[in-house]
Amino acid sequence: MGLLTPTVALKNVTDITPELLKSMGVDAILLDVDNTLAPPTDQTPYEGVQDWINLIKQSGFAVVICSNNFNARITPFSQSVGLDCVAMSLKPFPFGFNRAKKKLHEKPKAVVVVGDQIYTDVLGANLARMQSILLEPRSDEKGFSIWLRRKMEIRIRKKLYQK
Ligand SMILES: [Mg+2]
Q1: For residue 15, how far is its CA from the centre of ligand 1 (angstroms)?
Q2: Which of 1, 109, 121, 134 lies in the 20 to 30 Å Cα band around 156?
Q3: Is 49 left (phi over 0), alpha (psi -120 to 50) or beta?
């Protein structure tokens, strides 16, 4: 298992069930926003996401949003879906994950990072020795850096789905 390999790969965040999380032994989730919960330019979550967040919280999991995007984008979004957040988290570096973990009310036994990017969400989780769930990006982002990262991700994703 390399630093770019997630623990689990799924299509959408709503595919993550309480049973899966229990089987992974985790009790806390650090959640990405853009292309995971909502389109990068939109404050409205994807269909089913609000119900999924409610289900996961009701099932006893601690959830904190951890995004590299700015406060002005992430704070109002997090409030609207009823979650605490860390913005500008600098994934894949551990600073934001550590800040997010402090926002969990109880000390977690084990944390899983959920997101759509290998070079931020998965790499960050592995560097922090946490588990990860990689999702498929839901919308097309424009710009050179995301284009390059997606291109670099294609080979890794292909390997994952061969398993
Ligand atoms: Mg994302």
Answers
A1: 16
A2: 109
A3: alpha
